[in-house]
Amino acid sequence: MSQRISCPVCNRDIALSSINRHLDEGCPEEPNLSETSASGFFTLTKNKASAPSAPSLSANSGRSTINLSPAGGKDWLVSSPASKQSQQSQQKRTFSLPFQGSSHDAKKPDSGGGGTVFTKSFGDDVTADPDTPAAKRQKTNPARSAMPLAERVRPNTLNNIFGQDLVGPDGILRRMIESDSVKSMILWGGPGCGKTTIARTIAASTKARFVELSGTTNNIADCKKIFEQAKSELGLLGRKTILFIDEIHRFTKTQQDVFLAPVESGQVILIGATTENPSFKVQSALLSRCRVFTLKPLTTESTLKILNRALSTEFPEQSDIPPLLDDKLLTYLAEFASGDARTALNLLEISIQLASQPQTGSNQGFTQEDLKKALTKTLVYDRQGDGHYDTISAFHKSVRGNDPDAALYYLGRMIESGEDPLFISRRMMVMASEDIGLADNTLLPLATATHFAVQNVGMPEARINLAHCTVALCLAKKSTRAYRGLNNVLALLQSDPEAASAPIPLHLRNAPTTLMKTLGYGKEYKYPPNYVDGIVKQEYLPERLIGKKFLEDIDLGTRIDEEAYEEDGAGEV
């Protein structure tokens, strides 16, 4: 039995004769790499018929090659130096993306760390673009068929990414990717604009090791494991590691400290994707070490290109496309998606299912208008993304603007889309103080009671309580005096450090001990309830702020919107 040693990168038990090849291949999962004879003349690779979708590894001059021969091939493949030379003349870089619509489902588990490690090799070109004939054969793959359409047609090349100038022909990000000079970056953009697709395209084109983690499912311990592996890879093999973290804003700013040292030292190249403004969600020290690329929402034209490409992938023969899925419907879907390619593709997938049903029974006479109505019931609303925040923002502003119709519309939209009703009632309690405030002190108890009702009554009946409070908030008089007064204080404290540290007047200080009393704490304090009408002459602000006024005398602002007066016929201003 050959001697075995522990791999310095992944700590697996590897045969001594295979350790170099194992390291060259980035620590593949297969521990029993076939051993090459001393002459190196023949190389044997076992092709498992029982697992047709799994790649087999063939030792080829110390370099492993992914062999994706279809099931039913020979049990053993024998290659001679002559055949190796023939293979080398056709060598191309390949990349295995198991959930990108690639031609196989080979996924290399990570060596600890909970992330997805994508592996590259040199051999036959197995990279599958949805536009190629290979993609048509993949439709028989059950795992691939189970994927959503948006994953099946995800682009593997920059040429198939539409709507983002950054990766266009003259895009700066494209030049960085093609020259393999990718640096740490933050990809900022709304849902479905191409952040993850661009990151995985980088993975397919770089020589570096690529690891993908998610801020929703991975933790700091996972990241630290990746950093340790990256350090070993860089030291032993001289190979860099690219770490892609989807939804990086899910890590708190304190947790983001863990990225600073590895990024600063060059152990990893960090690519973070976020739908939130990095200025608020990414730690400033980390932000200064990364370049921020802003991805814009897709235009209708770009979304339409994506839909047409997806339709061509699903129906290679033009005649197989259901008649209802014409250019008019695709344009409707592109406009309805509002710049979100994932939403557009999800709607297209539903449309394909509905339009492909036999025209019999209740489906007889099913028209494009019927299809549109069915799609409209599937409201486009993301409870975790921009749709979540945009809708509650519109709801709040409608209440502030005294428009009960608009407020009820956004309330209904959130309820129908499955928004958490407690999230809505909590925002109402904020509105009661922020926007109504001193103008009507009964609205905060009403909003609090509404929150209590939602907790104890539950949906769907609690929708009535929400509507009651919504209309009451809209019709109430508004006052932002208290809110503005606090903002005035905070503005002073942020602009004047001395104001924030001004000494508290001695007569206002607490004096629980004899020592504090001897120091003058609480001395000469006048207790207002002991005086007529509670009126006393006494200073409460620190000495350097005496006379400063924070609470304004007016409930609202003084600006005039002339358009509002003209529309209401209120006369000249």
Automatic annotation (TrEMBL):
<dbReference type="GO" id="GO:0005634">
    <property type="term" value="C:nucleus"/>
</dbReference>
<dbReference type="GO" id="GO:0006271">
    <property type="term" value="P:DNA strand elongation involved in DNA replication"/>
</dbReference>
<dbReference type="GO" id="GO:0008270">
    <property type="term" value="F:zinc ion binding"/>
</dbReference>
<dbReference type="InterPro" id="IPR008921">
    <property type="entry name" value="DNA_pol3_clamp-load_cplx_C"/>
</dbReference>
<dbReference type="Pfam" id="PF16193">
    <property type="entry name" value="AAA_assoc_2"/>
</dbReference>
<dbReference type="GO" id="GO:0000731">
    <property type="term" value="P:DNA synthesis involved in DNA repair"/>
</dbReference>
<keyword id="KW-0234">DNA repair</keyword>
<feature type="compositionally biased region" description="Polar residues">
    <location>
        <begin position="92"/>
        <end position="103"/>
    </location>
</feature>
<dbReference type="GO" id="GO:0016887">
    <property type="term" value="F:ATP hydrolysis activity"/>
</dbReference>
<feature type="region of interest" description="Disordered">
    <location>
        <begin position="48"/>
        <end position="151"/>
    </location>
</feature>
<dbReference type="InterPro" id="IPR006642">
    <property type="entry name" value="Rad18_UBZ4"/>
</dbReference>
<keyword id="KW-0227">DNA damage</keyword>
<keyword id="KW-0067">ATP-binding</keyword>
<dbReference type="InterPro" id="IPR021886">
    <property type="entry name" value="MgsA_C"/>
</dbReference>
<comment type="similarity">
    <text>Belongs to the AAA ATPase family. RarA/MGS1/WRNIP1 subfamily.</text>
</comment>
<keyword id="KW-0547">Nucleotide-binding</keyword>
<feature type="compositionally biased region" description="Low complexity">
    <location>
        <begin position="79"/>
        <end position="91"/>
    </location>
</feature>
<dbReference type="InterPro" id="IPR051314">
    <property type="entry name" value="AAA_ATPase_RarA/MGS1/WRNIP1"/>
</dbReference>
<dbReference type="GO" id="GO:0003677">
    <property type="term" value="F:DNA binding"/>
</dbReference>
<dbReference type="GO" id="GO:0017116">
    <property type="term" value="F:single-stranded DNA helicase activity"/>
</dbReference>
<dbReference type="InterPro" id="IPR032423">
    <property type="entry name" value="AAA_assoc_2"/>
</dbReference>
<protein>
    <submittedName>
        <fullName>Uncharacterized protein</fullName>
    </submittedName>
</protein>
<dbReference type="Pfam" id="PF12002">
    <property type="entry name" value="MgsA_C"/>
</dbReference>
<dbReference type="GO" id="GO:0008047">
    <property type="term" value="F:enzyme activator activity"/>
</dbReference>
<feature type="compositionally biased region" description="Low complexity">
    <location>
        <begin position="48"/>
        <end position="61"/>
    </location>
</feature>
<dbReference type="Pfam" id="PF00004">
    <property type="entry name" value="AAA"/>
</dbReference>
<dbReference type="InterPro" id="IPR027417">
    <property type="entry name" value="P-loop_NTPase"/>
</dbReference>
<dbReference type="GO" id="GO:0005524">
    <property type="term" value="F:ATP binding"/>
</dbReference>
<keyword id="KW-0235">DNA replication</keyword>
<keyword id="KW-0863">Zinc-finger</keyword>
<dbReference type="InterPro" id="IPR003593">
    <property type="entry name" value="AAA+_ATPase"/>
</dbReference>
<keyword id="KW-0862">Zinc</keyword>
<keyword id="KW-0479">Metal-binding</keyword>
<dbReference type="InterPro" id="IPR003959">
    <property type="entry name" value="ATPase_AAA_core"/>
</dbReference>
